[in-house]
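Handout, section 4.2: multi-component inputs.
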Amino acid sequence: MHGPEESAPERVNAFSDGVFAIVITIMVLELKKPEEPTFGALFHLWPTWISYAVSYLFIAIVWVNHHYLLKYAKGASFRLIWGNFAHLFSVSLIPILTVWIAESKLAAVPVALYAGVFMLVNVTYLVLAWECLGVRRPTAAAVRTRKLLHIRSFFTISLFFLAMVVSFWFPYLGLGLICCCLGLYLRPEIPGKPGY
Amino acid sequence: MHGPEESAPERVNAFSDGVFAIVITIMVLELKKPEEPTFGALFHLWPTWISYAVSYLFIAIVWVNHHYLLKYAKGASFRLIWGNFAHLFSVSLIPILTVWIAESKLAAVPVALYAGVFMLVNVTYLVLAWECLGVRRPTAAAVRTRKLLHIRSFFTISLFFLAMVVSFWFPYLGLGLICCCLGLYLRPEIPGKPGY
Amino acid sequence: MHGPEESAPERVNAFSDGVFAIVITIMVLELKKPEEPTFGALFHLWPTWISYAVSYLFIAIVWVNHHYLLKYAKGASFRLIWGNFAHLFSVSLIPILTVWIAESKLAAVPVALYAGVFMLVNVTYLVLAWECLGVRRPTAAAVRTRKLLHIRSFFTISLFFLAMVVSFWFPYLGLGLICCCLGLYLRPEIPGKPGY
Amino acid sequence: MHGPEESAPERVNAFSDGVFAIVITIMVLELKKPEEPTFGALFHLWPTWISYAVSYLFIAIVWVNHHYLLKYAKGASFRLIWGNFAHLFSVSLIPILTVWIAESKLAAVPVALYAGVFMLVNVTYLVLAWECLGVRRPTAAAVRTRKLLHIRSFFTISLFFLAMVVSFWFPYLGLGLICCCLGLYLRPEIPGKPGY
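Output:
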């Protein structure tokens, strides 16, 4: 299908899917079963359960966007591979920060770092987007997609940065801002483009 | 094979298989080795071993049905991807509930929640089935498959709900009902259809 | 490539590879780092290191044979899928038994059960072989391959059973017999057949 | 695509990617969340975070080289499969040694063994390279690629050996040598060859 000289992105996809699958299920290992077989004991562990559900949703959103972007990749270039590794690295930090947030009951520092990790996820996504959309498809449609993607990215990166700063004083507000930013990525395609 | 505009379900399959493989083997990490190298110490841990075997079987049944359904998927639509994430989320809760059941020796609340999780697995499976069978293949055979699948699904969802309610008073009976429901899914295809 | 009616074995392969990859690396989590940064502390943990290396080799042998067999599979039939699940289930028990053997320093019961697990791996492999080689390729070469495979399988299953019985009195001898049996599977193809 | 007689390297790739994905994310499980929600508590854990980042980078470099090499593989021969298992085995030892280095704060023995593991990774890589580049592509370009690869490999293997010896007296210098060697592999292709 591909000669050895030009590299296919299939193995990059397979490796990324492996990492995403592990990261999204690693949190199950952090779930503790209640001490006693009662609803009371279960409700007592609510921060663990909520944090699992929320982080599952967030990682799913990141996967959907990764999946959307890598459809445009035609080859596994040096920059694509290393941009992807940087992206997966920042994704791999989500589980431990979620656990930290849950256990500290939304303290300032963990929430601020959580916003920082999502800023990193977004920055590395932008690097991937430059590589996937930038070089290989200089059509008019791609140019417009790229432009809208850049506007959205710079907007959400600024918002994540704001969330990070705000979290030091108002962690609940910071977490609300993070949720809003991620809502913007629920559909990977840009408004005004059919996408999927 | 697929242009970037229309999304192939291959990565959805690869990601789902990764999650299924992790969920089905995560329980091995919960297996404890006996304290002493004797059969007595091994038999003492029977709830752990039985629960591992039973949950392995149940997750295998869910995988077989998932595999059967996604063969019909022609593209990775928005609803397919999110229905799949919801399905995998409910599957990922099976291991921890099985451990809870085993350690509480079939107490009422864990068994009722176990039935609730399988109800969730079934509901999200129905959503996936609507997307996979409903939109893309409006042939006469597909209509009949879909109709039989719906009948079976509504029947088993009701049965799981009954099992959940019953478990609060008679957990052993509730677990028996769960096993019966899963038995209906042992073969994914609908009776009267060659299937596989 | 394949219509929805006839199922391709690709997803069975992908799922199996996921399970094998997890089972073979789960043992890394059991590896303990030495208490002190000296060779003495490292040598003190020799049963852990040896058992990791040996089980890695054994699971690699099982993977090579699985890989060899599933090349012959033309479709994912009901029996193939469930034979495969049974095979993977027995493989998933190898890590915990290896840890048990290492910690009990080759006590009788763990070694006997270890032999029993490998007997199970072999029996389920034979079921898979019946499905892969038996139905779909009734050529003269396949008949001969099948016959030689059956002879080898029945021979090694008997040897594993013998190892299990012997281990109750002489665990070291039992482990030696297990190693011999696995040596017979180092190359998956049958003598007198080019194979790979 | 491939007949059963000649084996395709796809499953070797899929299995390897699974192992790499698990090895690179297993270290997340070793990450401990800080005791208190403060930056001070986070900084206190710096050896854990640094070691995670560094080992992530090193395993990524090994994956990139593995990916580069296996593009040349035309079939899954006996030597390719077992060379690959040996390569993955040495890769799977990286996480535990990194943890050991971090906890012992760069003591002599862990750093020397770390250099030894990378020497092993490099030796098994060379075996894989012999199989992938040596047999199947006797073109002039391949001969030159092979020759340059051998020169680089023997050079870096000697350097890793030197790092191992040096570490017994000067562990910091040994670690510096390891970093230099890995820098040489940052781009898998050989200088003077377009590669990727």
